[in-house]
Amino acid sequence: MSNILTTTRAIPLVNLADYEHGSDAVRQAFVDQLADAFRGIGFVGVTGHGIPKQLIDDFYVAAKKFFAMDTDGKGKYEIPGAAGQRGYTAFGKEKAKQSQVADLKEFFQIGQETINMTTEQRNPDVAEVPEFMTLGRELYRQFEVKGNVLLEAIASYLELPANYFSTYTKDGISILRAIHYPPISSEPASAIRAEQHEDINLITLLVGASAGGLELLNANGEWQEVVPENDEIVINVGDMLQRLTNNHLKSTTHRVVNPPRAEWHKPRLSIPFFLHPRPEMSLDVLASCVTADNPRHYEAITAGGYLDQRLREIGLKK
């Protein structure tokens, strides 16, 4: 594997408004572009998504306020037994599945809330920064809507019913994660901010981070920097969608590297939305994705069974 870093634009760009408001021909062109990106590099940049920039900016400000709290203050929002799926997870808890050392990050996760949830199942409200959860819940809903539009386009490409994914993502266990990478104060033992990994879910939606560092591993074994521009949201295929399509759509390895030493004092904040179905969804590969050239690569498993397996691998579940 090469350590070469290439800096030309790494991922294609599509406009979601073409799919949501375009003619049949324009919609089909969007589907083809999206599929090409997901088959080729597993990532795509999306403009025209309609998520208000003000909402994103305001949530970033609120998240910074939360992470600026002291350790005891943040620790009140850590939920025992939640496997990091709700509330705060302290620095040094999560690692990549192949890594022996924890990533250099802390995070807060906002999960799905449904009408019949008990108080214990809901996300904790942050008394010190009340707008953090108000804005977070709204951003969660917006990401969920736009993520489902993208999954509808993927369903079209796979010649599945338009509602194939939304049937399973309604009340699914998607996660909005605010990740804080604190300033680096001393030479890290061997960890980087986020070691190379693949995402677990169907697709991930990521709004631009407060600093660079995101890199993907391309087909030539080169690391390419991903730099979102303007209002662009970066979307990537997760392992669940790769399994379902029998490796036809690619869940690409990516990482967040440490900044140059001169910038160690700068923290980094990023906001990914991990779009998950309900646990009972079957991830058995689609028959249409099994061919003589591409035989079945995976055993049948449910989304819940797969998530449980992966949370144990990355150290969030014992």
UniProtKB/TrEMBL annotation:
Transmembrane segments: none annotated. InterPro entries: DIOX_N, IPNS-like_FE2OG_OXY, IPNS-like_sf, Iron_ascorbate_oxido_reductase, Oxoglu/Fe-dep_dioxygenase_dom. Residues 172-277 form the Fe2OG dioxygenase domain. The keyword Ubl conjugation does not apply. Its EC number is 1.13.12.19, 1.14.20.7. It is an enzyme of class 1 (oxidoreductase). It catalyses: L-arginine + 2-oxoglutarate + O2 = guanidine + L-glutamate 5-semialdehyde + succinate + CO2; 2-oxoglutarate + O2 + 2 H(+) = ethene + 3 CO2 + H2O. Pathway: Alkene biosynthesis; ethylene biosynthesis via 2-oxoglutarate. The keyword Calcium does not apply. Keywords: Ethylene biosynthesis, Iron, Metal-binding, Oxidoreductase. Gene3D superfamilies: B-lactam Antibiotic, Isopenicillin N Synthase, Chain. Belongs to the iron/ascorbate-dependent oxidoreductase family. This is 2-oxoglutarate-dependent ethylene/succinate-forming enzyme.
